[in-house]
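Title: Prediction job returns without error message
Component: structure pipeline
Severity: low
Priority: P3
Assignee: unassigned

Description:
Job completed but the reporter wants confirmation the result is attached to the right record. Sequence as submitted:
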Amino acid sequence: MTSKLPIFSGSSPEEHIQSCCDYFDSLFSSPDTLNAKISSFIESILIDSVSVGVSRKVFSHVISRIKSLPSDLCLEYCTTLTEALKLRLMSFEDQITELNQHMADLYEAKRDFSKAASNLSAIPLENSQKNYSKAFTTQMYLKIAHLYLEGRDSNQAEIFINRASLLITSTTEPDLQVRYKLCYAKLLDFRKKFLEAARRYQELSLEPRLSVAEQNELLRHSILCAIIAPAGVHRSRLLSSLIKDERAQHFIIHGMLRNTQLGHLITLQQVNLFEKELEEHQQEKLPNGMTILEAAVMEHNLLAISHIYKSIKIDNLAQLLRVPALQAETVVGKMIAEQRISGSIDQIDQIIRFDIKAQPWDEHINVVCNKVNNVIDMLNQFEPEFTKERLQHYGC
């Protein structure tokens, strides 16, 4: 140990640690003095003549004192200390990890989610000297992904969700599995894959490990995503499943869900009321200038119109959809190409013709009726009198 440093006294490592801690406490008692001398104090502890064992314990004491400061001042000193220690990451990994975790908590409390995620991602989970468990590493990846999603950075969130996906199969903690599903569902939501996100949310709304309030909120998210998902058969099936859930009746958006599931035309007033319930990322504008909701409602109304009209002039369709004729024609063409609607466009006569196909339920009824007729024919063949009497009894 060097004698040039007045903060060191005594001959044993324990005495050196105590003298350094006492010196820092004297600085800590005076905010102005601490602000002026903290950098030089850190430098004096990091010199080569001070053993790593002593430095680690001193910095652990420093961190414990700094964490008691108000958040803004704490962040300032934590940043200063982290910048100094990261040059010797291998020697002070535990201290740097503690600092990054605490700064992440502070930034999260201030709702600065991007900085919180950035601090956690600075922790060397994969190249660490410590042998972190797969469960802990997965938990950290999901925490980072969650923070990036809260900060509306889905690109960074996807990176850490993908890392977690490589480890999640090797973990046996059910709570961790649920957290992974939650993050993945939210990522799909942010990626505008609303139909798949709605399915994931609906599945999670039945997860017994979540509270009733969390289950209801997830069901609400499922309904929101289902309504703004691209119109088509798969969306219709999901809407039918959601409308049967008794919990859905308690939501403000239940009326919109019912009208959408029944295939009713959605009015502008209903759109304006529903829009207030959407998340910020669900209100973004598409390249065509329409919002996500406006595009979803237009496709839904187009699908509803196809069940009402066998054919319709493009200009008349545009008036019903409240969009220019060219845009109406483009949307119809896109939905026909994606097999979300059956029909054809006659560009010469400017007419759209819809192909009305029997619904699956109608087909089931036809099958049942045919089987009933077959049974009656068989009875009439072997017991004609009995069959005639029964048919007359039921007025057939």
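Comment from assignee: result matches the submitted record. The mean pLDDT is 87.
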